[in-house]
Every structure is written in structure tokens, then in C-alpha cells.
Fold:
Amino acid sequence: MKKFFAFFTVLFLFAFCACAFADEEAKLKSVNDLKTQKLAAQRGTTGQYIAEDLLGDNKNLLLTTYEKYVDAVAALRQRKIRAVIMDEMPARRFLNEVEGLAIMDEVLSEESYAIGFRKGNTELVEAVNKALAEIKADGSLDKIIGKYFEAFLGDGSSSIKPEDIDFNKGAKGGTLVVGTEAGFAPYELKVGSSFIGIDIEMCALIAKKLDKELVIENMNFDALPMAVSTNKVDMICAGMTVTEERKENMDFSDNYVNAKQIALVRAGDYEK
Structure:
């Protein structure tokens, strides 16, 4: 009986894989078509959770997660996967810089980004929210967002330099250590030994209002929640989506930008 069950299981998996492989050459027309395809996402992101929901019971077989978006996009170009589930703005940056890619029209989810803190760190949350409200009110945040969208999503290049950002070095109030994952342009990007991006400049303005020097700690995205909960960093800012699950383990600032999750595919695979 055990041998029969094992044989049946292997036969089922073989048949399923054969169907998936056979379907790989079919044009993708809607998000529903992704449910039987090999997908990729950055590890620990909402893109991973959305991909898991799409694939259901087959997520262990069909989903590959990567530490960096660039690795997921490389796998897409190499035809190892059919789509990357990711944030819209970084996807549009890849679209401008890499030929042969497309974004499916359907939006997978709409979400908001906020800054994450150790649970119970009320004093810092309140101080950051106050600073955040000020840079929203005076137009500074909108100016930063507009500058980076134009630089990264316009002609695909950026003239923005780290030395143009005031990290408020030597501030009397000490340091504000911010954890991020600097492979998420236009929100954060490592340039040489320093960093640029919407989140970086926003945090620089916040640090200045708190009379602190901004210090950036770059790490993998899925390591950020532990880093803030263990006081390795004061807060995390990395295009972090606010979710109920994350709110159980950390506190969040007010939202600072709205975002979308989409599917990035090869242009030749997509038929609108």
C-alpha cells in the first residue's frame, strides 16, 4: 500500500510539473494565468506573500525567493521564472533600464509605506511623526519624491550624488541609525560607500529636525524587523509596507507614500 501511495504521489507531481512546463509557452493575459507559473519575489516582502496566495498549495514547488530584486529580475530574463511579484516603482526602474520587460496591467494590491520601530518605542515614533508631518506640510517630501521619480523613471539614469545629501554629520543630538535594504531604487540605492534615495533623503531631513546625524545600516530586507527589535538600529525605512502581521511585532510611523504591487514579466510573454 505504501509503495502504491508513493508511486501515485510521484505520478501526480510529474503530471503537475508537466502541465506547468507545457503552459510556460502560453501567453500571459491576466493575473489568473500566474497561478500555475513559476514566480519570484524578494524574500520577506509583501510581494512574497502575494505570490504565495496566488500559487496556493503549489507555492513550495513554483515560488523562488531572492534576497535582491536584481537577482529575481535576472532569473526572469534567463527564463527561469515567468514573473516577479514586486513593488511598482522599482519595477518601472527595471523597465526603463532593461529591454524586453513589461508590467501587467492588473494591480495585485495597493499599500502604504511607513517607518518601522521597536515595539513600544513611543518617544521616537512621536518625534519622527512630528518631523514627518512638517516635511509633508512644507512640501519637502513631495519635492524629494518628484526628484527621484524624474531621475530614475524618466531617462533611466540619475545625477543625484550622496554628497548632495545632508546627513547632518557631527550633530549634537547623537545619531539616528536607520536600517534599510539598498537595492530598492528609487527609494534606496547604494552608490559607492554611501546611499541615495527617497527614503534616505527623507530620513536625512527627519534626522536634522531631531538634531541627529543620519547613519545608514544596509542589510537584507528580511533581517530588518529583527534588527530594529534588538536595537541594532533605531528604525527601519526600506519601502516597508504596513501590514497587520508586521504591526504585531513593531510600531509604525504615519504613512509617507502609497504604493502598488504588480507583476513584472517578459514583454514577449504578455498579451494585453
Q: What stands out?
A: DSSP finds ten helices and 14 strands in the chain. The longest strand covers residues 257-266.
